[in-house]
Design brief:
Layout: E1 2-7, H1 19-26, E2 31-36, E3 49-50, E4 60-61, H2 63-75, E5 82-92, H3 95-102, E6 106-110, H4 120-127, E7 133-138, H5 148-159, E8 195-196, E9 199-200, H6 210-228
Parallel strand pairs: 1-2, 1-6, 5-6, 5-7
Antiparallel strand pairs: 3-4, 8-9
Helix pairs in contact: 3-5
The chain binds ligand JDE.
The site of ligand JDE has 17 residues, from strand 5.
Length: 234
């Protein structure tokens, strides 16, 4: 899979050199290219924003600059890419969304700042036959200073679903969010030592009775989901 990320703060994406995503890149499983939007600004001050039509607070990113950047990325692509725009006004980015995106050949993530990007950018690329589509996605109900942190979230969630990125032991197939047993949240976890600061481990986990352990874990997961995420409780 190829992912291009366009941002005025390309260094913000440097965590993608590390850990799971960094290793997937080294293994050739994911080709991530980060681009500086400002290189596509044409004036002396490299302006990327202007005041909003209709008035209101803040600034809006220029369609002209985004168009130049996205056209340049498309010119180097080998297939029609999906344009992904992180925004608080987008559709929810959840585990099913990550699964869908993980099946795409090429994603281009446009990281906006200020109040957002001139809406004609999404409109234009949605209608373009050189792009597979445009999707505006929100990673949560809060407002970030820019799309970069959301892009990091999306790339990590998608990368670990690409075959070969996770080892067998950590396979994505048993992620709690992939299950359909009505307990989307994972229950509590324990490892050595058996007593830590006078706190023990639930006896059932030391019993060796795999049937009882599985039932206990399911019950814990259901209870935690009911308590913390009633919105996910069927
Ligand atoms: C992504 N959940 C939240 C923020 C924005 C007021 C201030 C800022 C592309 O347009 C954007 C993008 C972002 C950054 O992304 C997020 C986000 N998932 O905040 C604004 C909107 N209104 C606009």
């Amino acid at each position: 899979m190829r992912v291009d990320i366009v941002s005025i703060f390309p260094e913000y994406l440097s965590p993608l050199d590390l850990s799971l995503v960094g290793k997937a890149r080294e293994a050739g499983l994911i080709d991530i290219r980060v681009h500086d939007l400002r290189e596509f600004a044409t004036d002396r001050h490299r302006t990327v924003d202007d005041t909003p039509y209709g008035g209101g607070p803040g600034m809006v990113m220029l369609a002209e600059v985004w168009g130049a950047a996205l056209d340049a990325v498309r010119a180097t692509a080998e297939s029609d890419p999906w344009l992904v725009i992180p925004t608080p006004s987008g559709y929810r980015f959840d585990q099913p969304t990550a699964t869908t995106l993980a099946q795409r050949e090429h994603l281009v993530i446009a990281c906006g700042r200020y109040e957002g990007i001139d809406s004609r950018v999404a409109e234009y690329y949605a209608a373009s036959d050189e792009w597979a589509g445009v999707v505006e996605l929100s990673v949560g109900d809060y407002v970030l200073a820019g799309g970069e942190a959301a892009a990091l979230v999306m790339v990590e969630a998608v990368a670990r679903l690409i075959p070969g990125v996770l080892g067998n032991a950590e396979s994505a197939a048993d992620d709690s969010f992939s299950k359909s047993d009505g307990a989307p949240l994972e229950g509590p976890l324990f490892t050595k030592p058996p007593v830590w600061r006078e706190l023990g481990v639930p006896d059932v986990l030391l019993s060796g009775d795999h049937g009882r352990i599985a039932r206990w874990r399911e019950e814990q997961a259901v209870e935690r989901t009911r308590e913390r995420r009633p919105d996910l409780t069927p």
